[in-house]
Amino acid sequence: MKIQAPKGMRDFYPEDWRLQTWLFNHWRAVSQAAGFCEFEGPIFEDLALYETKSGEGIVSELFHFEDRGGRHFANRPQMTPTLARMVAARANALPRPIKWFSIPRMCRAEKPQRGRLREFFQWNVDILGIDEVLADAEVISVAVSLLRRLGLTSQDVVVKLSSRALATAVLQSVGITPDTAATAFQLIDRAEKLEPQAFQQQWDAQFGAQVAAPAVMDLLATATLERCLKIAAESGPDGRGVATQFEELWTALQAFEADDFCEFDLRTVRGLAYYTGPVFEVRTRSAGLRALFGGGRYDNLTELLGGPRVTGVGFGAGDVPMLECLREFGKLPTLTEQLEVFVIDASHGLFPKVQEVTSRLRAADVAADFSYKRQALGKQLKQAAGRPARLAVIVGDEFATSGTVAVKDLATGEQRNVPWSAICDDARTALGLR
Amino acid sequence: MKIQAPKGMRDFYPEDWRLQTWLFNHWRAVSQAAGFCEFEGPIFEDLALYETKSGEGIVSELFHFEDRGGRHFANRPQMTPTLARMVAARANALPRPIKWFSIPRMCRAEKPQRGRLREFFQWNVDILGIDEVLADAEVISVAVSLLRRLGLTSQDVVVKLSSRALATAVLQSVGITPDTAATAFQLIDRAEKLEPQAFQQQWDAQFGAQVAAPAVMDLLATATLERCLKIAAESGPDGRGVATQFEELWTALQAFEADDFCEFDLRTVRGLAYYTGPVFEVRTRSAGLRALFGGGRYDNLTELLGGPRVTGVGFGAGDVPMLECLREFGKLPTLTEQLEVFVIDASHGLFPKVQEVTSRLRAADVAADFSYKRQALGKQLKQAAGRPARLAVIVGDEFATSGTVAVKDLATGEQRNVPWSAICDDARTALGLR
Description:
Distance between the termini of chain A: 47 Å
Strand content of chain A: 15-25%
Oligomer: homodimer
């Protein structure tokens, strides 16, 4: 075949898509159980939406294009700008809390590599319009619910939790001023992906010799929550507020019974520029604490996009690293087609009756199919078992003599005769469909 | 708000998305009941996939772009090229019939107007690898199942049915040679959208004075199926084959009990260049026979894309005209959030218990939520009714004294006390969740 799927993009054959659907259904079930409503937006947006201060590092990864009217667009690389735009547009009309989730497709023009594709699906869960850390705790508890639901334990994965406000107070104690904290966060976030030397160079270029990178990284890695809270509280009234807020967050996580998955880690700062408060990252405990997904509080995003202030907190979880992690932990199911009935003709002349009963079963919401080849009963039964179907309905000579068809349970081999007119009700009962 | 959704693209707020989901679930249910498996592909493809002879009129409607490696891509304007590419890539491995459906997002760079947006969702249903018209009949029967399921009758909508092979034979009888038939089809397909004068000019430019446009259009509009079959049968052995095949298609539609929605109409030829056999279009009977969706047989598409020959038949139905039609016929449902339980604290100190029981209900797959405002019981009950939730669970003073909480049915007003530890099982039973 000459033309292939573009590099870094995926073809989902039915068996692949079944797995995606399985994952999406878990995402959806956990979100809806927690009272979140699903929303969606356009696959591309005005380029300007991604060119604001909403997040450095995103613009370089855009697939962008122009229409004939000279307008510039880009396929969405993340959902939060769309979310912020939509919420800002109806900021006054939407009742609080705004609890929304979404399962959008995303495009990023990055070099395809393990766990990073040019197209992926991302589970987004956000609460907007709530300033209290109760919302942060609820969002994290939704993430934990998903992990539990997929069979992962707190031995398998961990939610690394910190706060940019708290980290700012701690960094200030070693000489990094609040106005350069954002730059420090971006460097710290990249630290694990950079060679130590490259990190050192970038750090020195920003902070010079007065704040030594190794000392800072060592502080971030070893500082306990108690110590950080103490440093913050001693830094002044703002710091005391930050410390109290973080303690409240922890208490709320306990009330939601999600704290067993959570660990304080001051190195968790996240890369996106728009985070303002608590931030978190879900990581595997094995395999070098690989990051699965993360999120945090973004209180200024709608304003950055030119709208009224609506505070927010949320996360985005990509399908690719999550499926990879589940595969490694042996948590992926084996899924087959859910065919319920395979309809068979015992002799070729009865095929119109096969079509008719198949149509009626389908209209009664029973998944039914038939063989396109007119072939012997045994071969058709084999086809039925191969799908696999749960029942076979066999239209044979009894149809002409007694107006009945045979219903065979393909698991037990049991077979019964059923009147033609009762076949839909009978099949639904046999299949346990109400 | 400065930045808006791009023109012709849609923001789906939760109430909008509920309606989309409702429609998609019907599409999915009808497809799965008929034994079709869902697949998906990339949101953009190599530009070359759309530059083949697969369909004129598509390339001008592409949003296309280049990556840093100089490769050219386009957001998909339809799904059939992706389907053909994917099937061709595994042509030998896939068992026949290949019965697939999909609900992809599409982008077309056209001028936004009523019923035509720059982004839409499209239900695609296809059978590949089957030459017989039985597959055409099954695909049409799936379309008819959907119409019935949505509450539309054969008085509301009609499936206009023809065949390009049959039309070619009939057009030959008035002097249009088979090699120019494809051009005639494109003109005929556009006829209703063009001013009569413009149509006449385009027709004359192609066929000159020897084949008068009005006479041809008149023939197409008045020719009965009997007359067309006769003309075809008399044209030679090929024509006889075409006539027999069309009769077989009709017989199969009767066996599937889908013929009551179908009407022969020789003007139905479809615009896409790749159709080779039977073609059909679903139209509303009122409001000028507005087209809802359509499809047909495309036996050469995989070859056109450079792959092995795999024949196919299918249709693509957009969400925008379908929702518009359902709105006009009053067939759209009123949908609300499906919240099951709202958990309430009778006094503020009990809020941690509210969080705890909410978490437990959610973990038991019960959609549960709570008030972010600590306020009076009555106000929280009002919030619960507003969602609307089906039950309220009230954590009050009995929790401390007897270890129970109150469960109130918000429809009947009935209220019972339930032990704290039994609340999940009790709620699931009360809600009818097994």
